[in-house]
Structure to design on (247 residues):
């Protein structure tokens, strides 16, 4: 039956066997020549991918660590900036307060000096006025005496002077 | 001849003879030597008498009294 079918199909059983042997040899040869290198290549690729993934994970971890470090540094920097700003603000407030105190002191000093000057000028004016009054009074007294003094009074005055000088040494 | 000490006697009016004699008596007794007064009239003295013996001034004039009062008042200011 099989032989009859093969005859109908024009196939020789030996050819079939030869083909099967060739096929098996080909499969074995391909297994050695292609499959194993391919497998080895695939394994290598898998290892490379795994290694790459591990490296990526490590890099990611390192990046995370760096990010945390940078975040911490940034926080420190912000804290330092804030501290410096506060110190600077305190310094500015202190300088402002000192300048204000100085200005107040200067104003007080100027006012005191002005008051003293006013007082001195007032005293001087009063003294000048008194001097003027004395001058005028003396002038008036001289005028009155030069007109009013009598000969008797003058003689009496001369005598008093001579009496006094006679009793004292030169 | 004995040398006389010179005196300059200044008054606001001419002195009477009695007054002139009194001046001579007082100052010749004071210096124990004769004097020779030179009389000058200066009405700015107002009254009283001022005598200068070459070194010392004896000032009994009203003018000087007023000036002393003025000086005192000025110093009190």
């Amino acid at each position: 039956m099989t032989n009859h079918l093969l005859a109908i199909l024009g196939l020789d059983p030996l050819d079939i066997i030869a083909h099967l042997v060739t096929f098996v040899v080909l499969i074995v040869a391909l297994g050695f020549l292609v499959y194993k290198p391919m497998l080895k290549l695939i394994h290598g690729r898998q290892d490379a991918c795994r290694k790459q993934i591990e490296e990526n994970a490590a890099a990611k971890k390192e990046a995370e660590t760096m990010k945390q470090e940078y975040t911490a540094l940034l926080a420190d920097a912000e804290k330092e900036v804030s501290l410096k700003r506060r110190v600077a603000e305190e310094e500015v407030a202190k300088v402002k307060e000192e300048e204000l105190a100085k200005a107040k002191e200067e104003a007080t000093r100027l006012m005191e000096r002005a008051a003293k000057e006013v007082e001195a000028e007032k005293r001087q004016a009063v003294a000048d006025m008194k001097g003027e009054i004395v001058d005028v009074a003396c002038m008036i007294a001289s005028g009155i005496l030069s007109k009013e003094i009598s000969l008797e009074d003058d003689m009496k005055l001369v005598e008093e002077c001579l009496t006094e000088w006679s009793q004292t040494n030169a | 001849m004995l040398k006389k000490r010179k005196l300059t006697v200044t008054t606001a009016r001419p002195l009477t003879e009695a007054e002139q004699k009194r001046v001579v008596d007082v100052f010749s007794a004071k210096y124990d030597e004769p004097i020779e007064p030179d009389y000058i009239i200066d009405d700015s003295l107002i009254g009283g008498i001022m005598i200068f013996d070459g070194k010392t001034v004896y000032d009994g004039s009203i003018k000087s009294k007023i000036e002393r009062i003025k000086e005192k008042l000025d110093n009190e200011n």
Chain A has a mean pLDDT of 90. The CA atoms of residues 45 and 116 of chain A lie 102 Å apart.
